[in-house]
Fold this sequence. Notes:
By secondary structure, the protein is an all-alpha fold. The protein has helices at residues 12-42, 46-78, 82-116, 136-171, 174-185, 192-202, 208-237.
Amino acid sequence: MYTVYSDTCMSVDEFKRKFEESINNFRLSIEKLIANVEDLINKGNIEEAYRLWRSESKNILEKMRESLNMLREEAKTLGITDEELKKYVDIFKESMRDISNRLEGLAKKIRDIDRRKGIVLSIDIDRMPIVISSTVESMVEGFRNIFDSIGRIIEDSMKSFEKFSMVVSARIRKNDLEIIDNLVASGIFRSRSEAIAYFIRKGIEASREWIEKALEQAKKIRELQESIRKELGDLDEE
Length: 238
């Protein structure tokens, strides 16, 4: 997604294009990460969402810092004045404000999902100030604080949901819990927590027909796998 720029001198027009490209790449990377994290959380894969957020947000920030620092050095080479550079910084600030709002929306969505489960999160997201700092370093650090805050929110949600799942599991009928475990064993859900999250939204009784079809299909797949393994074993013996 990101382009690392060489020390080869570029024109002012090229500099402007590269600057806008860097901002756009950062925005697209964040939007993609947010979409993936939201999808995992909606499916109940909070632990995986946490791991993805921690690794990808760190990578995005480092790429962003590297790209902007190289562009800043190129601006010096081109002789771009501080007044001219301020125009680019203002463009960057506006783009970052939009991204900041998107990140705050993610934090709110996590809280709303947890609130529907009766889970209350105590962590607040660090907000970008109304007047964003004029230095690249301060703006990158501001986003690092936001990313860390969201990471803590997801982590808190993960821990709370684990406790919640244990309580829900204790209240689910034994037969229904066996169905959930069979769905996990069949690979339809990745974990009991994910399955419970799904059925909290849909309800086991309302999904009964779908469950039966899913288990039947999973059984056929297992039988096919066993048949193939047996045939391969027979071939090895010949």
